[in-house]
């Protein structure tokens, strides 16, 4: 009985929200540009037909050549004109969102993709997959995490877990996100399924879908989406998942979801559904709110310190201490900071060497100086 009451309460809440926003009873309108696919216009129309038959709770507007079928069509002569018309319709609010192939987002905006993992059939959000959030890798991944959280909430995950893919810069991203968390930005880290756990994820965690949101740079995310979307078809026809997702940035105001020119109808069908959910739940407003919360928790200061740390400075000459046997291993220092971290230890008279363990970069120091070395690295901001 309690479960029934809860469902009824949720339904009434949704109705109240719909009346308040003026959207009750309205279907969102999602565009689909039909030029540009490597599989032809027919494949795009097939995707629209699949989405209409499978879901039916949003309207689809085709932007392309005139076609047979029960769809509204905005006629254009080619892909370039299709993009111009798409932007015009979005700006006029005649569309709530649009699915398209290849779109030039401004710097600061990148797309948040969504896949289905082959290991356990779990949905996994990849933040991000195309576009450039920042020209600085670590800054970009920090902001990608916030974008990923925004999209996760838009598709119904109220308290998403965040994992950071084990790439160059991952440890710096982890430190920054922990600082944000300590300053009051509320989110949860995922814990790797591997024995040593932690928020930095391995390849195994991608296959299992350990976090709700996997943070990475766009080039890596793009590769992941392509592999997961077409691993059963040989690469030229993407079938699985939801595509490369909506472009998200701090102040971006157009809902544009990306698919590949290699995407097939089954994937594009789900991309249309993904776009409709993002439109219904106003993902771009959610992103503004999340970035606002992050700024209140010191996002700009954290990134400012990060960028200042990376500026070239005139270093005082630091002599390497006399060589010793090094068997104490210190993980958790980012590979991009490894050599500077070693120099910080040399400055304190501690001999150290950099290396690579099975979980990533490590610093090796003498056993009797292990704890002191960790204190030095923490104080210097490398761990």
Automatic annotation (TrEMBL):
What is a biological process (GO) this protein takes part in? fatty acid biosynthetic process
* Active site, UniProt feature: 358
InterPro entries recorded: FA_synthesis, Gly_reductase_pC_asu
Tell me one GO molecular function of this protein: acyltransferase activity, transferring groups other than amino-acyl groups
Superkingdom: Bacteria
Q: What is this protein called?
A: Glycine reductase
């Amino acid at each position: 009985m309690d479960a029934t009451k809860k469902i009824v309460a949720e339904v009434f809440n949704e109705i109240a929200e719909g009346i308040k926003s003026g959207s009750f009873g309205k279907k969102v309108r999602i565009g689909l540009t039909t030029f540009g696919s490597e599989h032809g216009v027919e494949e795009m129309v097939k995707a629209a037909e699949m989405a209409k038959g499978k879901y039916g709770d949003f309207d689809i507007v085709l932007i392309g050549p005139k076609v047979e079928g029960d769809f509204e069509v905005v006629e254009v002569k080619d892909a370039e004109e299709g993009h111009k018309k798409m932007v015009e319709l979005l700006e006029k609010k005649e569309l709530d969102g649009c699915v398209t192939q290849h779109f030039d987002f401004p710097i600061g905006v990148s797309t948040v993709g969504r896949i289905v993992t082959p290991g356990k059939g779990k949905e996994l959000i990849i933040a991000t997959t195309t576009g450039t959030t920042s020209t600085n890798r670590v800054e970009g991944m920090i902001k990608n995490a916030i974008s990923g959280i925004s999209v996760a909430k838009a598709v119904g995950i109220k308290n998403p877990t965040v994992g950071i893919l084990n790439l160059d810069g991952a440890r710096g991203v982890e430190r920054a996100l922990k600082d944000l968390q300590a300053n009051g930005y509320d989110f949860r880290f995922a814990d790797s399924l591997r024995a040593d756990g932690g928020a930095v994820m391995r390849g195994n965690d991608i296959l299992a879908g350990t976090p709700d949101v996997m943070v990475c740079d766009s080039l890596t995310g793009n590769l992941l989406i392509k592999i997961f979307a077409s691993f059963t078809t040989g690469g030229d026809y993407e079938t699985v998942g939801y595509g490369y997702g909506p472009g998200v940035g701090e102040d971006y105001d157009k809902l544009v979801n990306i698919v590949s020119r290699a995407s097939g109808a089954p994937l594009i069908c789900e991309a249309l559904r993904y776009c409709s959910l993002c439109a219904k739940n106003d993902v771009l407003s959610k992103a503004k709110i999340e970035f606002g919360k992050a700024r209140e928790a010191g996002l700009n200061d954290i990134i400012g310190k990060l960028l200042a740390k990376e500026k070239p400075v005139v270093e005082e000459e630091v002599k390497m201490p006399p060589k010793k046997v090094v068997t104490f291993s210190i993980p958790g220092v980012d590979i991009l900071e490894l050599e500077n971290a070693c120099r910080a230890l040399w400055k304190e008279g501690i001999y150290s060497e950099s290396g690579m363990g099975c979980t990533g970069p490590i610093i090796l120091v003498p056993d009797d100086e292990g704890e002191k070395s960790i204190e030095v690295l923490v104080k210097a901001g490398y761990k």
